[in-house]
Amino acid sequence: MSVNDTAHNDNFAWNRQVYHRLKLALSLGLRRQLFLAVCDDLHLKNQVAARLHSTLAYPVGQVLYQSSNAQENSTPAYPRLVTLRLNLNDPNPIVQINQWLANYPPPIVGASKDTPGRPFPIPAFQIVGVEQLTKQPVATQRLFLHYLRLSEQYFSTQESSQFLESNLLLWIPRPWLSAIKQSAPQFWRCRTGLFVFAGEPTPATQNSGYPERFSRSGSLDLGNVEQSILDESVTQAELRTAASELKFKNNSDFTAETQGNGVHKIQEASPSIADLLKSAPQQQESNLRSGSGSNNQSLSSLSHISSELTELVIATINTNIAQDREDYLQLQQILLEIEELHEKQIIGEVLAEAYHRLGTLYRFRIEQGESTLENLMVAIIAYQEAISYDETSPQLPDILNDLGTLYWMLYRTPPNSEEGQTYIEQAIEFYQLALKMILPQTHSETYARVQNNLGTAYGDLARFSHPSENWEQAILAYSEALSYRTADMDSLKYAACQNNLGTAYWHLGQYNQPIVHLKKAIAAYNEALVHYNPEEEPLKYGMIQNNIGTACWNLAQYEQPAQNLQLAIDVYSEALKYRTPANVPSACAATQNNLGTAYWHLANLSQTTKQARQKYLQLCISAYEEAIALAHSLSSTSLSFDLLASYNNLGLAHYQLVIDKSFNGDTTRSQHLEVALDNHLQALNGLSKQPEAYQTTFTYVVKTIRAFHNELGIQGQNLALSKVPSQLLPEILSKL
């Protein structure tokens, strides 16, 4: 069980309260207010920021000042809240705000012959996109913190700056909160409100959780990302594939499509495309807002474009957190062009190209991190329309690959978890269709990309049904991708695909032929490791070392336990050189947890000497304590292992030291027993809704109290019982 699994309902209620408090704070319109909103979940952040923008930017409609004088023109809309995406080339939010105000000064309202009028209030500003700094060079990250330090004067002095007349909301992920506290302390002290949202961390677009979505050639590639760290404690080990690089294999269904030159024509698979376009899920559109207002009137009156596409585009305009009017004008121009082409009955390549441009525009939005439900659906529908009007385009393989990736992302976008299997299966169909149109000999890069993407999609499908069969398909796909993606072509993509292959073998080893498949997993991981320089790619290097450690630990359950556990310990220790508390505390905690479990198993091997057993148990305790301490420094939703299991494991290690008759440590037996009992009770407190795990932990509590009696007599037992919650005493006493 992962701690994250139990937090959804509480998180929802918490986030709703935080949202309403933040909305109220912004609505007050006070001067010189600096708000910090902390959110690790990129999707949640986008949704909340967009909702704030849509509800606060134009709260009283499209006309904010209606003149009582018929001779005077009404003032057009002027926002109460402006959303700016941080300029990554020059990450200075204050300059961006002042530049926006210079370009869009507040209009003067109420002017007449007798009165000069008054300027409309300065809007509030929310800054998004800080999480993208993680992908930038260290110099750029430092520059951002430098600008925050420089901006301290605006908050601490009376120096003139227009933005001081309003308030500022800065969206940041948790790691940047720590960086700001340390590197811009005065800026931190100037804050007037801190709003912390709960949610799982979402890595940046090329990191875990989001594959390399878009290649430079313009085709989606869900790859070149690090595999996620160990998802749960090693005793329930599972390596996640959420962040794997997406590409695939040409299996027996596709081998007939290898003759001839160039790209296959769409007619060869037209029935499949027609079926796909008809069956593509559209049920989400009913949940999307259609929007209104004068800016959208020309769009809502379009008659030839499908109503669902038009409504979706309007919804993205109403909730769009893009910064300027140019974005809206570009969308309007494309839609009006499509409408005109329909009216003139100019169908075919020209109309398909217009739809393709619309889809690509939204794809670029998604690439920038705006993977909202609305943006995904617009891109999907636009690309599907493009295919329907030109079934012979040379871009079809790339479009089909992109459609597969967009459906894969749709599965990853809340609230689509219930429909997840449908979306993944849809993605797989598009990938397979793209592969039928590609000759690997002439389009090796595209072919490898699609095969890799398909492999990751099969890995996700394995979570829903037929895990063994789907992991086998994933292995075939990754292997086929590696036939055309060599280390000489792109060493990092090759390494990422090898890592994905290793993880697929690891998963398959949980269902059949564990020794064979775990050894293949280790071989693939080691091949990936060769191509990562620990100085240049320390996090990925550490991540793969962690994966090797988990595979070795797993293999130790079947053969050569001492040798494989020692190997697991060695590579976990190597991983911790790069997965440090400062760099990646959550990943460091997971690897420390894994290291503790490996030491625990090594201590309990029959061939381990008593002296070595005590040494290993002490090392086990140190690793678990480090993992738990790091976990406490983070939000619980940032963890990828079972913290409650770690408490239990730490308690068991202390208990074992005591019952070992050769114990000669510098800590008394009673101290070890007290720590063991405290940890088991901590775990028990969080397991009330898991009957089986609760009962196991309850048994540990009873055994530990008995050990108190055996070691310290009735006085020791009374000491132990004094630590137990009163509601548990009747049941515990009946077991003693």
Q: Give the overall form.
A: globular
CATH-defined fold name of the domain at 3-63 and 77-109 and 119-196: Rossmann fold
The CATH class assignment of the domain at 3-63 and 77-109 and 119-196 is: Alpha Beta
Q: What portion of residues belong to β-strands?
A: 5-15%
Largest sheet: spatial strand order = 4-7-8-1-9
Q: Provide the CATH architecture of the domain at 3-63 and 77-109 and 119-196.
A: 3-Layer(aba) Sandwich
- Count of DSSP strands: 11
| Cα gyration radius (Å) | 29 Å
Instruction: Please give the alpha-carbon distance between the first and last residues.
Output: 29 Å
Uncertain regions: pLDDT < 50 for 5+ in a row? 1-9, 60-75, 158-163, 203-295
What does the average pLDDT come to? 77
Taking the sheet with the most strands, its summary is:
5 strands, parallel
Annotation field: number of helices = 26
Tell me roughly what share of residues is in helical segments: 55-70%
Structure class:
mainly alpha
Describe the structure in your own words:
By secondary structure, this protein is mostly helical. Among the domains are: 3-63 and 77-109 and 119-196, Rossmann fold (3-Layer(aba) Sandwich), CATH 3.40.50; 682-735, no CATH class. The chain is built from 26 helices and eleven strands. The strands form four sheets. Strands 4-7-8-1-9 form a five-stranded parallel sheet, sandwiched between helices. Strands 2-3 form a two-stranded antiparallel ribbon. A two-stranded antiparallel ribbon has the order 5-6. α13 (396-412) runs antiparallel to α14 (420-436), α15 (444-461) packs antiparallel against α16 (467-484) and α17 runs antiparallel to α18 (514-530).
